[in-house]
Amino acid sequence: MKKYLYLVCGSMLALAGCTRDADVEPARPVESGKVVLTGLSGEVTRTGFGEASEGVVPFRWSAGDCIWVGDVKSEPLESSGEKGAFVFESVAEADSYDVIYNMTGSAARTASIPAEQTQTEAGRPDLGRNGDFGYATADANRTFVLNHATSYVWFDVSSADVTARLESISLSVSGGHAIAGEAVFAEGALGACEGSSSVTLNFGEEGVALPTQHSDTEVFAAMVLYPADLSEATVSVVYTFADGSVYMQSRAGRRLTPGGTLRISATIAAADCKRDGVFYLTENGVAEEIPESVTYLKAVTLGEGKLAAADLSAIASRLKAGAVLDFAEATYEAAEFPTVFSRKTTLREISLPCNILTMPSTGTYATAFYGCTGLETVALPDGLTEIAARAFSGCSKLVSVRLPSTLTSIGEYAFYDCKALADVVVPEKITTLSRSLFAGCTGLKSVTIPAGVKTIDSGAFNKCSALESIELPEGLTTLGSQAFMNCSALKSVRIPDGVTAIPNETFAYCSVLETVELPSALKTIGNMGFYKNNALRSISFPETLETIGTNSFDECHSLADVTIDIPVVTDYSFRDCGCTTIVLGEKVTEVGRNAFYGYSDESGNVKSITCRAQTPPELGQTPFDGIGKNVEGKKYLYVPAASYEAYEKEWASVIGQGYILEDISDQELTDGVWYRVSREEKWTTTMPDTFSALYVRTVGEQTISAEALQSVVARLAAQSVPCLLYTSPSPRD
Fold it and tell me: Is this structure's pTM higher than 0.90?
């Protein structure tokens, strides 16, 4: 005989004889420094169910209840009743108080509705312990009536012949709706909840006996749920008894409103309780045969019953558009999940059997859910250790997936092109993010990578265009090519010190990447490593750097300064950058073809080039052409003084663009008048007594005084041989 789950919305009325606000004397501090706020039982007040009347359930305060004002918690109530006097030791006097009831979440003003709830006695629900959450404002009389943001289910169950004690009631919903979890309270309602789509109410080790008949006055059992619109969902309920038998029922759901109560009635006959076999719950009830068409199906296995490969094949062949499959309370005949659902575009939601350990692949495109373009939600069982390559590749509507903590391996391309996937928490046992693991996940905004990850393989996050930030673990040692290529929303990244190589195109086309912190032991940057990072403003290379590849920072238009000290500055490495200064270190021996070539309007702003190498580096074809085309005024090429003549010859193409050859040491001069007797000597502010040549430079606003000039003339006249006098202003003038 088929059984159905009836959901009846119970209306909320004031408890008969309930004390009204006008009947209550204003509460005052009972002791100096104490404040008492009195909660009344109203139409929507519920921390415990009272005795129903004509199908209406009144609600009362319960012993042990507490409320919060801000982050201050009251003393617990000592007894249950229609009124609750809540005492605060340290709340300041005020005209009104904003009250929160049962702030059980991990943060302030947060509700936490557990997926595992408890009730130790029949007829005595413990809503407070199970996540009940309410709010109110205490008036000038310091009284309030609680409003509630959570929803409730009243189980009205009876049996004339079931003698076994009830151990638990499990309620689950289709459609990926969260009915348990954490949610932040704001503006009179709970925010989004990301949690469980099922709740189990446990009755302890001894269980509870079923009443022999229905009651419209006593609430046998109740659970707290997160409000959700279940009007298009299917609700399934499983009653588990101490003798191993199970009773099941299911049907279409209803809306769960904040503060509302849904009444679920069931008359359970012993003959309808099951002990062994495979059973299917659908929107039409419970059956032992797979229906001809599958829109919603929940499988439950009992005793020795197991889902067979033929069962899953049959189910896969009968799926209708938007199909929802729940195998979470079923056992499959093998630990490996088959590939029968591959390319099933009508599948919308699935929960895998509880005993599945691996999701293998039988070929490149023959994996568990490859190409399931309609799949939105998947629940993986705890105990799962492996997800095969391409397991969810092409599941373009997949919104969420919880990866179990037992996972040790996720294959390449496993979530490739899952465009709707918004956030992922990678389990702690994963050490490698495989090739193209999340490539093409254009909606991915948040990724949590565990500390144990050592390798992020090639293309792992390629084209994750919504990813704005990512924290790489300190133990990371290896990055693959194109690992973060085309992450066009990524703004900053810190690469851990264990990484010694950034391969080809690792961060190419990250168009808004502004800041990059390179690892302290970095040795190489590959070809196009940071190509077209148009927002990158600065880069600091560690002393350990040995090589950079071609086009490594090509078209980084916002890069203001480049300071680099490696043997070879490769072809196109800084082409068309927006830098204003270039500093080449002593190690530089070669500057490659078009290394700094400026061909667009964004480049051509280099005011100074500094090269510290004593021997002029060899220049490839047009390495500096166009770099100063936008500069108004003087442009300078700073080199070691002893190498002037060599640079004049070897770097004539640079000087020919209008760069004035200057001594590197000139850059260190402060305001004043400076003297030296040769280019090789250091500048000094004291005029030498004798010289065969004299260099004089003014810096800043300083000028040579008439007295100083006369002193120079006098010392020139005193020389026995002809002397040379060189004067020049600072390049800053």
Answer: no
